[in-house]
């Protein structure tokens, strides 16, 4: 029995020797045999109907679709200068290829580079990639001429694929909310990524319900792992809203706030499944919060860590976590280092060090495009106009804001002082004024101004316009001062002549890009068409629901081409919360908001409003 060639997978020749042993023969030996080496004992290629070509093929590594995963698979191809590519099996290790019964040597340099990179990355060919492997492939292989992508998976692609393939499971016993379809898709994507151990960015626009999607994922996590620990970090102005939303959409989960001057310094006393705290507390309480390994770490308004060198960012990234979710409507604002800082929180090291990242990517369009392949599967970002039919065209966002401890005590002192003077209605008005003024002119808190800042970050980031209704001059002046150097800023206070108001609105509307109009609702709350703005922020609460609805109707009216988002912030457990409760009650009872209810305040309501106190609340703090 003589040796003979065996054709494997129609792409590779293996020598079957006389003793039956199989041997892969180097291409240079086959070449010598075919070109007159009489000493060679190899059988000729013609013995198996194959001819020999001088054309050398190169290897190419492609990222292509995978049937069992959204992040694709790596497949190896060999190709010549003119012919189409030949797909190679993972078992192909020879340095030649058979293409249409023609033998070609493979360029040795491309073989060594590709096999070395695949080995270093620890990735198998023709096997569906995980998210982390996809990121590793894109980071290490992009830029090599032998690597190409047939697919560019995005978070939207992954979320839709995950939701369509999801097998129905037992509903969570913890989650009590109801999700729009797009929210269900988003929460399924978050759940899928969390189970993969992958940190992500939820970058939906404000008004799409990022909070409820995250709460659903937290509930699912605690359903699967009852002893899981979750930390939610947010600005001070948003912590009360997180607490209330969690109460509204979940059941059977222990939660607590880690904040205030009397918070614990012993991590063993932080025992609840879900803990809420602020960025400032994370920075101050490193010794406490780094003692706990969090199963899930959620950053709300995560643009707070966009600057990679601040103490706040450093403190957050030191927290031990299995998975991190960054929640922000404005993921990237000014520089590509914003991208690095957020991704470095979600997937530490995925984009390399800050110095290597800065050397590779500059703040230009080409760099942004190149970076998109890394970021796309990690960030789900949807705008209001991307959501078909699911949302009402006016989206209300009620935002309770918890006064800090010292501010709550100051409010209580003023409440008692004003009550003791016997003029109840005047007491209410004085409290409303104290809550609206900035602290630097005798106000109680700046947290509502801070919440306005989170809104403007997103609105102006999308180059959209904002209409703010405020009826106290100190507030109008403070808001104007904060933003007049940032964007074109206009005011309608009542001090301006009535015939100039339309001119102010026209100037505001004609701005190409973001702009701010601050208006007294009794001046601009009726008659004016301000559809250039698709965001309305009610800085000052009102007793009369008609004033609120007429104010919303400046933007939410015929001629408006976008959904309108209306923000209703108020300080929790104060007269402001009572006012908003009464507005909602009166709307429900009358069903005639604009014409049937004039929103007068009666003596019983005065007494009830003065009974609200942030110091009388009972909630778990640690």
List the helices and strands and how they pair.
Blueprint: E1 4-8, E2 12-16, E3 22-23, H1 27-34, E4 51-52, E5 58-66, E6 69-79, E7 86-88, E8 96-99, E9 102-105, H2 108-121, H3 131-141, E10 147-149, H4 155-165, H5 181-195, E11 200-202, H6 210-224, E12 230-234, H7 239-249, E13 255-257, E14 274-278, H8 279-284, H9 286-289, E15 294-300, H10 311-318, E16 321-327, H11 336-346, H12 354-360, H13 365-375, E17 379-380, E18 394-401, H14 405-420, H15 424-436, H16 447-461, E19 465-469, H17 473-483, E20 489-492, H18 501-510, E21 515-519, H19 521-524, E22 535-538, H20 545-552, E23 564-571, H21 575-590, H22 603-611
Parallel strand pairs: 4-9, 5-10, 11-16, 11-17, 12-14, 12-15, 13-14, 15-16, 18-23, 19-21, 19-22, 20-21, 22-23
Antiparallel strand pairs: 1-2, 2-3, 5-6, 6-7, 8-9
Beta-strand content estimate: 15-25%
Taking the alpha carbons of the first and last residues, their distance comes to 84 Å
Shape: elongated
Number of helices: 22
What name is given to the CATH topology of the largest domain? Rossmann fold
The percentage helix is: 25-40%
| Total DSSP E strands | 23
Q: Largest sheet, described in full?
A: 7 strands, parallel
Q: Write out the strand line-up for the largest beta sheet, numbering strands in chain order.
A: 13-14-12-15-16-11-17
What would you say the CATH architecture of the largest domain is? 3-Layer(aba) Sandwich
Structural class by sheet pairing and helices: alpha/beta
What is the CATH superfamily classification of the largest domain?
Answer: Tandem AAA-ATPase domain
CATH class of the largest domain: Alpha Beta
């Amino acid at each position: 029995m003589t040796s003979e060639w065996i054709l494997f997978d129609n792409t590779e020749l293996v020598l079957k020797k006389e003793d039956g042993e199989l041997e892969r023969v180097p291409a240079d030996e086959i070449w010598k045999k075919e070109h007159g080496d009489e000493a060679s004992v190899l059988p000729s290629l013609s013995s198996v109907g194959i001819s020999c070509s001088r054309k050398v093929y190169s290897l190419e590594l492609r990222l292509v679709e995978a049937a069992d995963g959204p992040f694709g698979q790596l497949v190896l191809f060999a190709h010549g200068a003119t012919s189409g590519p030949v797909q190679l099996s993972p078992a192909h290790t020879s340095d030649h290829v058979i293409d249409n019964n023609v033998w070609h040597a493979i360029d040795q340099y491309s073989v060594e580079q590709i096999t070395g990179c695949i080995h270093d990355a620890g990735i198998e060919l023709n096997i569906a990639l995980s998210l982390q492997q996809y990121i590793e492939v894109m980071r290490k292989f992009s830029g090599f001429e032998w690597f190409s992508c047939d697919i560019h998976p995005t978070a939207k692609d992954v979320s839709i694929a995950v939701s369509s393939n999801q097998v129905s499971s037992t509903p969570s016993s913890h989650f009590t909310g109801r999700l729009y379809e797009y929210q269900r898709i988003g929460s399924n994507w978050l759940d899928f990524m969390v189970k993969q151990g992958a940190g992500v960015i939820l970058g939906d626009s404000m008004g799409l319900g990022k909070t409820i999607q995250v709460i659903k994922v937290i509930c699912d996590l605690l359903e699967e792992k009852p002893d899981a620990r979750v930390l939610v970090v947010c600005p001070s102005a948003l912590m009360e809203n997180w607490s209330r939303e969690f109460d509204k959409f979940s059941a059977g989960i222990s939660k607590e706030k880690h904040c205030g001057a009397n918070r614990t310094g012993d991590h063993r006393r932080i025992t609840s499944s879900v803990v809420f705290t602020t960025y400032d507390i994370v920075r101050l309480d490193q010794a406490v919060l780094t003692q706990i390994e969090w199963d899930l770490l959620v950053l709300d308004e995560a643009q707070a860590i966009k600057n990679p060198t601040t103490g706040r960012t450093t403190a957050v990234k030191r927290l031990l976590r299995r998975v991190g979710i960054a929640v922000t409507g404005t993921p990237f604002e000014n520089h590509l280092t914003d991208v690095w800082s957020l991704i470095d929180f979600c997937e530490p090291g995925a984009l390399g060090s800050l110095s290597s990242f800065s050397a590779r990517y500059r703040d230009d369009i080409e760099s942004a495009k190149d970076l998109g392949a890394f970021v796309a599967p990690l960030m789900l970002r949807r705008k209001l106009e991307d959501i078909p039919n699911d949302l009402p065209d006016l989206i209300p966002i009620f935002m309770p804001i918890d006064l800090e401890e010292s501010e709550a005590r100051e409010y209580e002192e003023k409440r008692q002082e004003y009550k003791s003077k016997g003029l109840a209605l005047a007491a209410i008005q004085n409290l409303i004024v104290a809550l609206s003024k900035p602290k630097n002119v005798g106000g109680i808190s700046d947290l509502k101004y801070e919440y306005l800042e989170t809104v403007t970050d997103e609105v102006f980031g999308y180059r959209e316009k904002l209409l703010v209704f405020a009826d106290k001059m100190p507030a109008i002046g403070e808001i104007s001062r904060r933003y007049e150097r940032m964007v074109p800023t206009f005011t309608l206070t009542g001090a301006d002549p009535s015939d100039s108001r339309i001119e102010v609105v026209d100037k505001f509307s004609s701005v190409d890009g973001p702009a701010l109009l601050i208006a007294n609702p009794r001046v601009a709350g009726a008659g004016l068409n301000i559809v250039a703005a698709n965001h309305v922020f009610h800085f000052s609460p009102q007793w009369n629901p008609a004033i609120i609805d007429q104010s919303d109707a400046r933007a939410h009216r015929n001629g408006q081409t976008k959904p309108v988002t209306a923000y209703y912030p108020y300080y929790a457990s104060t007269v402001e919360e009572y006012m908003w409760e009464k507005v909602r009650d009166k709307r429900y009872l009358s069903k005639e908001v604009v014409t049937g209810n004039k929103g007068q305040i009666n003596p019983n309501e005065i007494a009830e409003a003065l009974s609200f106190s942030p110091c009388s609340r009972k909630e778990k703090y640690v």
